[in-house]
Amino acid sequence: MKKYSMKDIAKLSGVSVATVSRVINNNGRFSEKTRKKVEKVIEETEYQPNFSAKSLRMNKSHSIGIIVPDITNYFFAEVVQKIEEILFEAGYSTIICNTARDNKKEHVYLKTLESKGVDGLIIISGAKKFDYTSPSNSEKVIPYICIDRAPENEKNTIFISSDHYQGAYLATLELIKAGSSLPVFLTHNRESTSQVERFHGFKAALEKNNIKFSKDKHTFSFNSNSENDKNKLIAFFENNPQIDGIFAVNDHLAIEIMNILKKMNISVPGDKKIIGFDDLPQSKDISPSLSSVEQNTDEIAKVTVDNLLLLINNPKNTGDTIQIPVSLKLRESTQKN
Fold first, then answer.
1. Do residues 257 and 263 lie in contact, with contact meaning Cβ atoms separated by under 8 Å?
2. How far, in Å, CA of 101 to CA of 70, rounded?
3. Within a 10 A sphere around the Cβ of 109, how many other Cβ atoms?
4. What global pTM score does this model have?
């Protein structure tokens, strides 16, 4: 197949090269008739504009790199998908890199994205706190936005996150309102800034209701993939039968705990109320249906893209922290007896 140049397109269309350029970039003055004529020739010849040369001239690639720690995670996948859709509509392609929570992999992907000259980065880091500096050997400063995981240096970026503290606070208040006098914070053994904020919200709700916090009675951390840890959790429930409320740090954990309680012949919500975080689709379909904290992924995606595009034009406009409100989805697992 012949490879056509812009000069060829201009000749076949009967217009100047400058007019073809204006049509391709949708920039400048040309008639609707001219646009249709040029686009018809482009379609017939399957002409591919040389965006690489244009990118070099303008120092822009019209591409965005996205770092995500676990693309199978419902919340991360939802946010990334919606970000990609908004960026596409804004004329940007995306390069999505799944790090599997591997810090070395995250570092390698960052170097790869730098080498591709992306115009911006959206980071959901697998590390507890994310630290990044644009490469010193490049004239191009790469602006970046952090989502959900706090950056090490907030003045270099914009941090966008759900209000995890608020979500945990409201969830724990709901357990207490439903009759729980000894709620417990159950989490996995992988620490993140979002988990820390949820823990602080849990403690604040206890304090609000004059419940004295005890680490031994009010918290338990375990690996749901470990049979040994599951046995420890069963022992924890058996040794603390007065526990009547559970705030699980996410819905996956909440559902796992509900299955464990069922095997122990412990009724939910009869014996123990339970609420999760993330509002997974299956949370409403299981029995009993799971109460949960819903994160506003539409708003997170929109605010992220809006702020990144602003940073691309003004890389020094950093330092903000933006929290997106959450909401409770109450179902059978927190119903009063």
1. no
2. 7
3. 21
4. 0.80
- DSSP reduced 3-state for 73: coil
Q: Distance between CA 115 and CA 111 in Å, rounded?
A: 6
Q: Is the distance from CB of 171 to CB of 273 less than 8 angstroms?
A: no
Q: Which residues contact 49 (CB under 8 A, 6 or more apart)?
A: 6, 24
Q: Phi and psi at residue 321, in whole multiples of 5°?
A: -120, 125
Question: pLDDT per residue over 256-274, tens digit each?
Answer: 999 999 999 999 999 999 9
Q: Which residue has the tokens 């179902």?
A: 331
Asked if residue 335 lies in contact with residue 274, where contact means CB atoms within 8 angstroms, the answer is no
DSSP letters, 206-233, are HHHTTPPP-HHHHEEE--TT-HHHHHHH
Q: How far is CA 18 from the centre of its chain?
A: 42
Residue 143 DSSP symbol: -
Does an H or E element contain 170, and which? helix 164-177
Residue 301 CB-half CA count within 13 A: 18
Q: pLDDT by residue (tens digit) across 106-165?
A: 989 998 998 888 999 999 987 666 777 665 445 567 899 999 988 888 888 999 999 999
159/162 Cα distance (integer angstroms):
10
